[in-house]
Amino acid sequence: MKEYQTYEKMLDEKQYNSLRSELLEENPADIAQLIENVPVEKAVLILRVLPKDVQAAVFAEVYSDTQQALIGLFSDTEIHFIIEELFLDDAADFIEEMPATIAKKILANATKETRDEINRLLKYPDNSAGTIMTVEYVDLKRGMTVRESFSRIRKTGTDKETIYTCYVTDSERRLEGVVTAKKLMLAEREEIIGDIMDTNIMLAQTYEDQEEVARRFNKYDLLSLPVVDSENRLVGIITVDDIADVIQAEATEDFEIMGGMAPSEKPYLKTSVFELFKNRIGWLVGLMILGMGTGIILKIFEDAMLAVPLLITFIPMLTDTGGNAGAQSSTLIIRGMAVSEITTQDFMKVAWKEIRISMMAGVVLAGVAFVRVIILSTGEADLYIKAAVISLTIIFTVFMSKLCGVALPMLAKKTKIDPAVMAAPLITTIVDACSLIMFFMIAKLFLGYLM
Amino acid sequence: MKEYQTYEKMLDEKQYNSLRSELLEENPADIAQLIENVPVEKAVLILRVLPKDVQAAVFAEVYSDTQQALIGLFSDTEIHFIIEELFLDDAADFIEEMPATIAKKILANATKETRDEINRLLKYPDNSAGTIMTVEYVDLKRGMTVRESFSRIRKTGTDKETIYTCYVTDSERRLEGVVTAKKLMLAEREEIIGDIMDTNIMLAQTYEDQEEVARRFNKYDLLSLPVVDSENRLVGIITVDDIADVIQAEATEDFEIMGGMAPSEKPYLKTSVFELFKNRIGWLVGLMILGMGTGIILKIFEDAMLAVPLLITFIPMLTDTGGNAGAQSSTLIIRGMAVSEITTQDFMKVAWKEIRISMMAGVVLAGVAFVRVIILSTGEADLYIKAAVISLTIIFTVFMSKLCGVALPMLAKKTKIDPAVMAAPLITTIVDACSLIMFFMIAKLFLGYLM
Fold it and tell me: How close, in Å, is residue B13 to chain A by CA atoms?
């Protein structure tokens, strides 16, 4: 791909033929990047030099705000061609992101058949199998020969992803079996589909969660999976490349929740400042209000604090260490459950593991803290006792933090809350309060005579 | 799949034939779960009732500690059959995880050809394209007809994932073109491969990072990609289902690093307590030592603190809010860079976005904190001034935290450090120190007469 300016220059100099032939050498995904990076008025002109099918392929690849801008500059005829050229699932994805008035205008320019199909796709709930499936697939009948099947594939096999598994349906469109392209290629031309098809079929339901479907792909190393509606009629297929997108998107969602934000489907650079603000402020205010509990605890122990000022200087180190220890455990547990490596039934096994780890980590950290207190606070009265208080608190804090890090995500899962909510931000705030209470209780026990 | 006990019982009662026929109805991934959940002595017996190819398929699916236990119970002949039946990439993955003595024993039982191939695969660096590629693929010659190609596929097309794209190579095994199965199926039987092959080929290099390769799959919606060595000879192919695994594994690695741990390739439940401890203790101790800076700052401002005890009670809320605000930004930036939605060139754009968000969030949080101080601390002298100090500090802290959350991951990327290192744990510790300095400086400015 050349520099974007090169193509802009060719456009400005009206070298449409060379622009067209140069761009036809490129992948639609690269042309889409060019479209994103030139002013939209030029983008429309660039699209217009391309053949209809390439136009549609490029259009499907650009972000929705650019799609919206382009639609604003398209004629009704152009909108009609685009919507008819797009794969139906791409068309539905695109229209879903448009404001209602624009969506209406686009659908008005589609044929009735396309409109009905798109409306059907738009009805599936977010993140369901129905929203990621491809509705173009090859369907065969059990009575066909291999030779007849080949000629049907020749007629209907439009997209690369749709022909490698063919679906055998009855007159009601209910799934009877599957035949892979491999089997067809290796079979004799006169064999009957009903004899070579595989009837042991894995299925997905339209309303099933896409994460569940992704897990099945992962576990069984599937390349594609047929999707049926509630009456068991075949309505589409999901292919492994869609699953790669699902895995990517689900991980991003978890990163966002675990980073203390409401998840967003848009890429960062395409999200407005106000939207980003809205996604974040809820968590920030909520955690702040929750964090006020810590203030109340400090207020209660104010006398103890003021009597032994050295203790105060260790508060941030103590709460941070607790937060870090808890975050480690909760991160592993949340991720483990997300990829189905850990289930809530493993609670005892996991808790016992974390208890032993917390003991080892607690002792090491307590040792480091002890040495640090001794070295940096020489001259302080009762230094060894104070150092012991801090070290002991660390052991208890790490223990409690790791246990919270295991228990809270698993409890969330059990009660159908997204475990990702129980990640570092929330754990840190909860652990803060607990570790301070422990700190002052241990201090009172050892240094009570000072307070 | 029935309960694991059912199969164990059939084994105990020596009903080998029914056990065999029942298990052959199941998917190898499910049989592998059974193998994981029965004592290893029984697992071996269960494997032995299965045909060699199913044995290998199941063996490839179990975790490496179970593989090792099974190998210990296998005879040399059994080891020979397993290693020869496994796909070469699965065999290499399996041997890589074995202790050296066992690996040697296994390789000694393989044919020379298999051994050489496996040794070649084992040489590729971790996470390189070479380690995820499949070495079984269909290669055609340009002079072949479609009919001849079909009979070659019939002879060599062993695995489902290898036949949908065929590779045309010259006598030196250099890649000349690709032909998809679709093209073959749609072509006339007497057409020549050289005439229908696509010569515009995307490639991967054996030493390329798997994340880079995954990005290319994502961007261009690829189903497979040929892998060539430094002399441009075709050595394997990568298929999209391997890419789904890469995406999953890379996300897990980032979760671990961002949770403040050294990443591990093993699933949680299969990792020993000591290993988990080792992965975590480095970060915990490092962050604790770094966090001691905060203690030093508090020590410096000890007089100010003791003069206005109310301030102390707000320290945890302040540092937590800063940490949370910074974690939100860094999470989005790190993830955005991992999925190539954000590059370091976007720094100014991103920083400007975050500055505006931090202003909005800072003002809201400051308002909440102000009200909270007024309500909960009535009766305190100079209450409004103290509340103002806290609110103002929050505004500055959020501003600075969000800026750190953008700058540190991008700086890491620029200096070739993994940006995931600059996630919540480190950001929180850095922001703690900065926010405390700000807190006391603002307090001195407003409440100087008290200190």
Answer: 29
